[in-house]
Write a structure and sequence with these properties.
Layout lengths: L3 E6 L6 H16 L3 E6 L9 H4 L21 E5 L11 E6 L9 H9 L2 E4 L2 H9 L2 E4 L5 E5 L5 E3 L27 E5 L14 H12 L7 E5 L7 H15 L10 E4 L5 H8 L4 E6 L8 H7 L5 E4 L14 E3 L1 E5 L14 E5 L1 H13 L2 H17 L2 H15 L15
Helix pairs in contact: 1-11, 5-6, 5-9
């Protein structure tokens, strides 16, 4: 009889954690060692219903069970932020992307310590967990001790689906009208924070792009695949207002074009976007990533990437194969700080001069960077695929999950 393995996660949501959950669940099912059942959880304000839109994951809906549980599972896994971790099973596993800054909140440390093991997405995330320590005090302010991670943490990278994310030579089926022959692409949410302080650093990217190519006779364009909360018309209008507000701060009427892609796209559609003939490179001035999944998936298009040189994505983006922007660690700005992104923690601020130089260099001398994209694609394909992640996860489960007592049927003779 297989051990019961119940996984609580936002697997049916349109979110990054949803994608991570689906990959992990499929990998566990593929081991054929466990009786897998699922609890469907929400993820912020992101909508449900992903699995009905993608044939690869429709069968996961058949594994959903109602809450509350009627018996303790052998293995319990939660894929979420660590403050939500609760030990429900005989053996308990937490899965998280971790944190994008230099310090995790004390709630995260306590959550990790409630589980038997935590799997996090990058070495950056693991190192921050292991180095974060806090004084625990009573109501009178007396120090009771030091709170730090005492349970095992292992790195389980995210893996790209090579059947979906790959080079394709067919024309893009989406209606993307770009006037320019050269476009940069950004993918990510527009998160809270003043310009230059939001975690994805989209405000600074827009400002830097305008400033770099204003008044130039030949200009590239910038495509933003972004939203603030969801795919509503109100959300789209707010994004457009923010772009225009930044545009008004630039002292020129001769500016490059910025295009907005807004709404939900399937994985196949995202791969079509990545392979669009006019999209030449991805750019991210991110201040911090737990992993950076879009960067991995885009890299399989064999196109170059301009990116901040710090945090989780540096696990898989080889500095030799990409255009890395330097910078320094600075405090999380109050406009972006919250209970997870602590105001006294730090994240990355890219060098402004290097941003403009990198954008200009790749635009002017694109041929010099095409080979770098191909080399990064090879690394991503061979070291960061879903298959590689699946094998690593199988090994981690086999190594760490204990043997459970098996029920033995007794045959008692009569008389």
């Amino acid at each position: 009889m297989k051990p019961t393995f119940i996984i609580s996660s936002p697997f049916d949501t349109f979110s990054g954690y949803g994608a991570r959950s689906r990959d992990v669940i499929k990998a566990i099912i593929a081991t054929d060692k466990y009786d897998v059942k699922l609890l469907s959880q929400r993820w912020g304000n992101t909508p449900f219903g992903f699995c009905k839109t993608d044939a690869r994951f429709k069968d996961l809906l058949e594994l959903v069970i109602p809450a509350p549980l009627n018996q303790q599972p052998d293995i319990w896994m939660q894929i979420t932020v660590p403050n939500e971790f609760q030990p429900v099973g005989k053996y308990n596993i937490g899965v998280t992307a971790g944190i994008e800054t230099t310090v995790v909140p004390g709630e995260f440390v306590e959550g990790v310590n409630r589980m038997d093991i935590t799997l996090t997405s990058s070495n950056h995330s693991k190192n921050v967990f292991m180095s974060s320590q806090f004084e625990k005090k009573d109501n009178n302010g007396n120090v009771l001790g030091i709170t730090k991670v005492t349970k095992p943490i292992e790195v389980l990278m995210e893996g790209a689906d090579l059947d979906t994310y790959k080079v394709i030579n067919t024309p893009c089926s989406l209606d993307i009208n770009i006037k320019e022959d050269f476009a940069y692409l950004f993918v990510g949410h527009w998160l809270p924070g003043d310009m230059g302080e939001d975690r994805k650093n989209l405000g600074l990217l827009i400002k830097a792009f305008y400033e770099t190519f204003k008044n130039k006779s030949k200009k590239p364009s910038l495509i933003l695949k972004t939203s603030i909360v969801g795919s509503s018309y109100m959300d789209r209008d707010e994004v457009l207002k923010r772009i225009d507000a930044i545009k008004q701060t630039v002292n020129s009427k001769d500016l490059p074009n910025i295009y907005l892609l807004h709404g939900d796209f399937t994985d196949s559609e995202m791969n079509e976007i990545y392979n669009h003939s006019k999209i030449k490179a991805m750019v991210s001035l991110t201040k911090g990533e737990g992993f950076g999944r879009p960067l991995l998936e885009f890299s399989l298009s064999k196109k170059p990437i301009i990116v901040s040189g710090w945090s989780g994505h540096m696990d898989f983006l080889e500095p030799e194969f990409n255009i890395i922007i330097g910078g320094s660690l600075t405090n999380v700005h109050p406009s972006a700080a919250n209970k997870f992104l602590l105001a006294d923690s730090q994240w990355f601020s890219p060098n402004h001069g290097q941003i403009g130089n990198s954008l200009t260099e790749v635009f002017k001398n694109y041929k010099n960077y095409k080979d770098l994209g191909k080399r990064q694609a090879h690394k991503s394909k061979t070291e960061y695929s879903w298959e590689v992640m699946k094998d690593l996860l199988s090994s981690l489960l086999e190594k760490n999950i204990p043997e459970f007592p098996k029920e033995i049927k007794l045959n008692i003779p009569n008389g």
